[in-house]
Amino acid sequence: MQILFIGDIVGRPGREAVAAFLPELQKEHKLDLVIANAENASGGRGLTKEVAYELYDYGIHFLTMGNHVWDQKEIIKFIDDETKLIRPANYPKGAPGKGYGFVIRNGIKTGIINLSGRIFLPPLENPFTMVSQIINMMAVETPVIIVDFHAEATSEKVALGWFLNGKVSAVLGTHTHIQTADARVLDQGTAYITDVGMTGPRDSVLGVKKEIIINNFLTQMPARFEVANGVNQLNAVVLQIDEKTGKTQRIIPIQK
Fold it and tell me: Considering the chain, what is the average pLDDT of its residues?
């Protein structure tokens, strides 16, 4: 099977990039499933219901989140009812929403897990112990399991990749908005990349107007972040997976 995972969608420019590039990627790679990280999809912070359904309309089948999951407060009202939207699984018990889910496309069931790192991010539950429990439950349903690890530190991401090697189909890093050059299939069939990258305004600082961020570094004065304009980019990876074993045969980085 062919799965496309789209890196962090940032604001309207990111959504426009999805609308522009997803049809040609669908045609080129004959995609069975499209997953995207949408934690910055609404105005650069969080996700509204309207924007979630806009992304579904563009052809995305499943959405993951991250540390900005609660920035649009309305998500608390609808995330429990959304079967195609998950937030990091290692939020404490009682938080709205779910941290993992299943989607069936072309007769193939895929399990998807969202996790948040703990280095330089809020101190949530341990993602390593949390994910082990979830995988044991999901593996009964399907061998195809994709993990979105929304984390800052490269060491934490690499460590989780090796920890889950052979247990899941892919460990895909998100959050830092820069596609890394280490896409590979580990020796037990798990695809890995430290960060899938960002889908949004190219000439920016991680999606934000560069002038704002540069001035912040120069003066250390607080400023309201605004999503940049200009040329849009799409960063993603295509996974070629044996749906019978869950092993990944190839990971292809995408930059449009």
Answer: 97
In sequence order, what are the beta bridge partners of 199? 9
Residue pair 156/119 in contact (Cβ under 8 Å)? The answer is: yes
Rounded to whole angstroms, the Cα distance separating 252 from 256 reads 13
Question: What amino acid positions are annotated as catalytic residues?
Answer: 68
- CA pair distance 32, 69, nearest whole angstrom: 26
Q: Contact at 8 Å (CB) between 166 and 188?
A: yes
Q: Note the pLDDT tens digit of each residue in 27-60.
A: 999 999 999 999 999 999 999 999 999 999 999 9
The per-residue DSSP string of the chain comes to -EEEEE-EEBHHHHHHHHHHHHHHHHHHHT-SEEEEE-TBTTTTSS--HHHHHHHHHHT--EEE--TTTTSSTTHHHHGGG-TTB---TTSPTT-SS-SEEEEEETTEEEEEEEEE--TTS---S-HHHHHHHHHHHHTTT-S-EEEEEE-S-HHHHHHHHHHTTTTSSEEEEESS-S--S--EE-TTS-EEES---EEEESSSBTTB-HHHHHHHHHH-------B--SSEE-EEEEEEE-TTT--EEEEEEEE-
Give the β-pairing of 232-233 and 184-185.
unpaired
- pLDDT surpassing 90 at residue 22: yes
Rounded to two decimals, the pTM is: 0.96
Nearest to 237 by CA among 99, 9, 34, 58: 34
